[in-house]
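For the sake of transparency, this paper describes our internal protein records without simplification. The record that follows is passed on verbatim for readers who wish to inspect the format:
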Amino acid sequence: MFKSHYLLKFLSAAIILVCVHAYGIDLGKVKGESGKVKGNGREVKFGREVKVERLKVKGNSNELKRKRGILKEVYTDELGVREFSSRNDGPDVEKYLRYVRLKKGQPWCAAFVCWALGETGIKNPRSGWSPDLFPASKVIWQRTRAIAAGDIATPRQGDVFGVWYSDKGRIAHVGFVDKWDGKWIISVEGNTNGAGSAEGDGVYRKRRLIASLYKVADFIQDKRI
């Protein structure tokens, strides 16, 4: 009787394991997903866990695609963020700025990009200075390079673009490439507005001419050119 009892427990455990394997139960979802609440006229997520760890396998295309998808989810969740008083302030804006060790009141397009990369577990410069997002080791596209030379990679979802401002003599605005179609990009970017300003009031989805971009960097995988 004693042996039968333990045999029964063993068989029950084995059946459970077979079912989990066969039906693909998502253990991550069993732990619970983040909830959403309405606040300040927009949808806000709370309690979100970082969903991926830094990948150890650098060349696995499925893992890289998955990570790009998770990054997209992170930055698109922020669409609708607005400054509190149009002075680079407000709870979400200050959250981005804190991530790069800056106080409220500072320009925050680079802080937004770094924060979203960090939320996805992607190593980044943690800087509010836009040029810091384009080290030579990460740049995969540059307007001044000849495409015929074969040294330009096609930017992908989650890559970071930079816009050059001649009056500043540097890249002074950055955001995420969400879609690249050859002539235009669809972007998600912070500290902008409906007109695409580098001193706007929130996180917006924009459509920009590729010819208006200066550089694109990839923080998700090794340099592609």
